[in-house]
Amino acid sequence: MAQEGKKPRMYVLGLETSCDETAVGIVDEQRHILANRVATQLTEHKPYGGVVPEIAARAHLDRLDDLIHGALDDAKISLVDLAGIAATCGPGLIGGVMVGAMMGKSMAAVAKKPFIAVNHLEAHALTARLTNDVAFPYLLLLISGGHCQLLLVKGVGDYRRLGTTIDDAVGECFDKGAKLLGLGYPGGPALEEAAKKGDGRAFDLPRPLRGRAGCDFSFSGLKTGLRQVTETKNPIPVADLAASLQTAIADILFDRTQNALAMLAEENESITALVVAGGVAANQTIRRSLAALAATHCIPCVVPPPALCTDNGVMVAWAGLERLGLGLTDSFDFASRPRWPLDSKATDRA
Ligand code: KG4
Ligand code: ZN
Predict the structure, then answer these.
(1) Largest Cα–Cα separation, the chain
(2) 5-33 pLDDT, tens per residue?
(3) Which tens digit of pLDDT belongs to each residue from 316-337?
(4) pLDDT of residue 162
């Protein structure tokens, strides 16, 4: 419902289908979240202990319609009130990405609205600007099920990657660790819960690359270290091992982020904040440790609320709105892509 007598508000709808969450969000330029509908596919993937791409794509297709209608109802607007339609076009599981991208393009074509192809990582990267109005440039630690990266966020579409994982993503380490400890899927929240009853110093698990130069991450040695301990213990001390794994992960993230902050300071690159995004940012132990690190550098540590840290449509809508505000829209032949590094050049969007 457009407001009478006032400048019409700029509403953008965002679609997220790149992994196992089907999500639709609507935001406006005044940072209001008007709709945030998320349908998780947990029950579909649970029997397999991980996301099955074909099942994910089919489930997105089944649910997207209802979620879009629900989101428009929540926002009390209709398609014609939208200023633009954004969809995650990568990186991610390509079948699912295509479902969301095709839906977004079709809606934009029917309603004659601009279409914005959103990079999923950019959506995570810009969420802190929606929730906390963080100014550029800032350091971003992106920690999710598929990614573990440190990025200097200089502006919309302007990123410098400082480091990335050389093997597993940090969320994968939580998920695989939880599986080894019999904690089920998804592992992150289950492992955090189990860790509450354990001692984080009980087992001295490996911290790969800690103390070494650079900002890259590695988790495979930690996973192996955990497996070796589980093989020698009967019964497995689940709580202590969960807590020790969580402490080791927090230590690794602290060490690598500390290096990035030192590197930027050396280059006289001043930043406004340390922003932590992605599903793993919901973890309280990790948040506390990174907040302490940011404090030593006299910058705030900004972490969006948990519901906006895990995959959602609001972050896609917001990234779309930021792009739209800069006149950055995309054509309907924009190709979905399974891989799409955030620091690729603007020309790579074609
Ligand atoms: O960002 P996200 O929802 O999806 C991806 O783009 O990957 O992140 C999902 C990941 C999963 O690996 C999940 O186990 C992890 O985030 N996660 C957590 C917590 N909540 C979710 N990891 C640690 N502690 C948590 N509380
Ligand atoms: Zn994500």
Answers:
(1) 72
(2) 566 789 999 999 998 899 999 999 999 99
(3) 999 999 999 999 999 999 999 9
(4) 97
What atom of ligand 1 comes closest to residue 277's alpha carbon? Answer: 1
Testing ligand 1's pocket by substitution, the residue of 18, 280, 283, 312 carrying the most ligand atoms inside 8 A of its CB is 280
Residue 232 has a pLDDT of: 95
Q: Is 174 in the pocket of ligand 1 (CB under 6 A)?
A: yes
Ligand 1: atom nearest CA of 187 is: 14
Ligand nearest to C-alpha 146: 1
**pLDDT tens for residues 245-297?**
999 999 999 999 999 999 999 999 999 999 999 999 999 999 999 999 999 99
Q: What pLDDT is stored for residue 45 in this prediction?
A: 82
